User: Fold this.
Amino acid sequence: MRRQSGFGYIEALVAVVLLAVALVPALEALSNATRNAPAADQDDDLWMAVSSKINLASGSRFDDLDAAATAAGSASTASSLSDAAGTTPRVLVYLSRYDGDNADGDNNPFTGTDADLIWIRAAIADTPVELVTLVTR
Assistant:
């Protein structure tokens, strides 16, 4: 008697069960990804707003930044470059002269400042989204 080639009923049944077991987690992962897409899209919008604002600020004339930093008074006070209240998302811009060489020895970058170095922080109000940079004259 010759042996028949091909898959038998049991082999086909086992293959279908294995596929079903493997597809369930894959479909759940796709479902979670599509469910979380709007939140990720909103995060992208926040990061783009902060990035745009810090690029705009760092591209400003140094003397204008220095004047805005002086007017703000401290690194924890939002400057005039910030978005107006009620703007969504509201990007706050903080400016300060910066002590890059720690010349005064107190390890505080916002005291004993260098005249040619400005610290810029752009942050979305009430979120952890922020970017920080330094600009020189």
Notes: The helical segments are 9-58, 62-72. Residues 9-58 form the longest helix (50 residues). The chain has a mean pLDDT of 87. The first strand starts at residue 91 and ends at 98.
